[in-house]
Each structure stands twice: as C-alpha cells, then as structure tokens.
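One thing: can you check what follows?
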Amino acid sequence: MDNDACASVEKELDRVVTKLEQLYETSTAEIGDIASLMSELVKVLNKAENEMVTTLNTSTQMNAPANVDDPMGDGVSMQVETEPAEPQRLTERQIEIIREALSKCNERVQKLSTEHRDLHGAVSKIGKAIDRNFSADFSSTMRVDVLQEEDNLMLVNKAIAKHYCRQGMDSVARTLIKECNMAEDNAQDVFDSEREFAEIYSIWLQIQKRYLREALEWTIRHSEQLLERHSIIEFRLHRMRFMQLVSQGVGSQNEAIMYARTNFKKFAVRYEHEIANLMASFIYLPGGLENSPYKHFLEQEMWTELSFIFLKDACQLLGISKNSALSVVINAGCTALPALLNIKQVMQSRQVLGMWNGCDELPIEIDLQPEFRFHSIFACPILRQQTSEDNPPKKLTCGHVISNDALHKLSNGHILKCPYCPVEQNSEEAVRIYF
C-alpha cells in the first residue's frame, strides 16, 4: 500500500519535472529569438536616426563658394539661412520591420506566459496525489493533552532551544527563550549543556568546507584521550592535511615532507604501511594528483566522511549525543507513524474508540533502528517491563530493585520475600529510587 502510494506521487512528480525541463528548453530558445529581434529593431532605429540627423544638417546650412562675385568684397564667405525642412519620417520598410519585430516578440511572450500558466495545474496535482494517497489526519496518533501541562510544554521548548544551540543559532534560541518566558535556570542550562557540542558542530562544518586548522587544534588538545580510545580521527586529519599540501604541486613538496616528519611520528607503528603509501604520492607530483591513484583524496566524499568520523569520535569522547533530542524524537516518530496509522485503521474497523491502552506506552511495539534505542529507564526483572511514573522502581531492604507493580504482586499483606534472596521484609520499607 505504501509502495503504491509513493509510486503514484512519484509519477506526478516526474511529470512535473519533465514539463519543467521542456519549459526551460523552450524558454531558452524563445528568449534567444526575442533578444535577436530586439537587436535587429535597435539597428533599424539607429539607422533611421542617423538618416534624420544627416537630412536636418544638410537642409539648414549652406556655404557660398569663394569664387562667386560678391559686392561686399572678394573671398568673403556668406552664410545663407533657409527655413528648416520638415523632419524626415521613417520609411515604409522601416515601419514594417518594427511592426513585425514587435508582433513576433508579443507572440513569443504570450506563448511563454501560457506554458508557464499551464504548469501550475501539473504542480497542484502533486499536492492532490499526496492528499489522495497519504493520510493527513494524525489526530488519533497524538496526545495533545500532554502539552496542556506547563512543565511538559517547557520541556518541548527547552528541547527546541537546545537544538538551535547545537546548530550555532544562539540568537534564535534566545528569542525562543524570551518569547516562551523560560525560567532563568532552564535558559542557562540550555547554553551550558550545548556549549561543547556547538564547538564540535562548528568544526564539523569547517571540515566539510576543507578547513582543517580548528579540527587539528582540537585533536591535539585531546590527543591522549583519543589514543586511549584507539580513535582514528587524529591520523585521518593529519593524513588529509598532508594530501592537501601534496595536491598543491611541486612548490609545496618540502612543506609536505616537513609536515609528515613532524606529525606522522607518533603513528609510525600503527599506520606504518599506510604512511609508506602516502609518501609514494610524491612520484605523481609532476603530472598532478588528479591523474594518479591518489585522486580520491581530492573528492568531496572523502571530506564528508572525515567530518562525520570527527563528529562521532568527538561526541563519544565528550560523552554527548551527536544527535539532538529533538531530531531523535522526530525521526523516531516518523518511523513509528506508519505503523500507528495501520493499527488505527484496524482498531477503527473493530470499533475501538481509542488507540492508547496505557498512559505512557504505545498500543503496539515499534521496531526502531539501533541509533534510536536508549535504555535510560529501569526495566523490572520480574515483570519484564519498563518502569514509569505510575509504576516506579523500588529498592528493597536487601538491596535488590523491582518495579512497584511487582512489589504488590509478590507481597502477602505486609510481608515480602525477595525473589532473588530469601530475605523476608516489610513491603512498606521499600524505597523509590531514581535513574
């Protein structure tokens, strides 16, 4: 069902893309013709203007010849003033050319306007195909009532503000904090918790733009910790910087050699074979690396891969998530949404009024990708279910932890025998714990 829906929308999208490509080709040709017509029209008008100026000059001034007898004396030049002639009008041929050029331009403009207007209908069909093939009613999969509580709404605003801080958009985060009247301690926590990631994110962007200075400075500061974790990012950054110098040609050969001697020394044992291969790149300097087996170092894919390796290793080192809480929630929700819509149809066909059979759990189990799996909530070893606010974890006097529901089910009055050790105790002495 989902594949058929996607195929239907994709068909409409391909149709629009094809029409756009055709319109682009047609428009390019038509605009070129219009430009040619306008150039020809300008030439005709310039020629007509020159003819008019010449006619006016010759008809308003006349000099007498020097050898004509003159009663006022020999050799005296006399200027004869005559009445200006009527301005020369355009010839019939020139008028015909102008009218023809304007008519053709108008026809082409009208044609382009019509084709562009027809494209709007094809674009609107995409939206109709989406509405026809995909459900737009998600009300049964949502619980808007939880946002009516002030604390929950503040948590959402806080997650959004942290996401902005991670992207380096501090000004947007401050505007959100101001408009939602976030408490000062919460606002400070937003910037304090994301300050380290903001630096990592900035370096990540720099690597993708092929700037390595800040990334190398960061790895030098954390060199010992990275080596303890057997991270490859420090060597990869030095390797890429070395290849940057080599790619600049013979003029940077000495600088590349000095860089290798200075920075590859600590990696000589672990990456001996790879360093030897890097040194062989000097052979291809006269012809350029783009014509050598090392040309893949010049491709953007290498830099993108390097940036994500840095992001992953840096976040692991600092103990922070490389994805914001907001992005994790949205991506996990998009993964769960199709399954929830399917179960909604089943429950409606069986006249089940609500989708939620519990306060804090989904009606079905959603299989998420590993990057969305977190286990920050205690799972009861007896009932094999995660604890919640309504079913919190309880620590027994013997030190073992079970859920509150398991505690009541195992209790006989006030007497409880620990399911892991034979210690009998008072169930009321169990203490709630927090993870």
Observations:
- The radius of gyration is 40 Å.
